[in-house]
Design a protein that fits this description.
There is one protein chain. It is built from two helices and four strands; from the N terminus they run E-H-E-E-H-E. The radius of gyration is 12 Å and the shape is globular. A four-stranded mixed beta sheet has the order 1-2-3-4, covered by helices on one side. Helix 1 runs antiparallel to helix 2. Strand 2 and strand 3 form a beta hairpin. It has a single domain, classed as 2-Layer Sandwich (GMP Synthetase, Chain A, domain 3). By secondary structure, the protein is of the alpha/beta class.
Length: 84
């Protein structure tokens, strides 16, 4: 996974939202390295929106895996991740 998110882009995230995003980013990097995160910003206090760039040959299983990873992180932290 390649990430172009800089620390200045994360200034709008709260501390718990930033921790949630970092957990999600590490899980995606480990299990689905061909996905690319383009942007992240808060939707409200309990929801963050993550923009993904899908690979050319994205399979249904890969998309489902990333959604499952987002749900796992949500269960641990309480912050919902919306994938765009």
């Amino acid at each position: 996974m390649r990430t172009e998110i800089s620390k200045t882009q994360n200034n709008s995230l709260s501390r718990i939202q930033l921790k949630t995003f970092e957990k999600f980013r590490r899980k995606v990097k480990a299990q689905a390295p061909d996905f690319r995160i383009n942007r992240v910003h808060p939707y409200n206090a309990t929801i963050i929106e993550v923009g993904l760039n899908f690979p050319q040959k994205m399979s249904y299983r890969k998309g489902l895996l990333v959604s499952k990873l987002a749900t796992e992180v949500e269960d641990k932290t309480g912050i919902t991740i919306i994938l765009r």
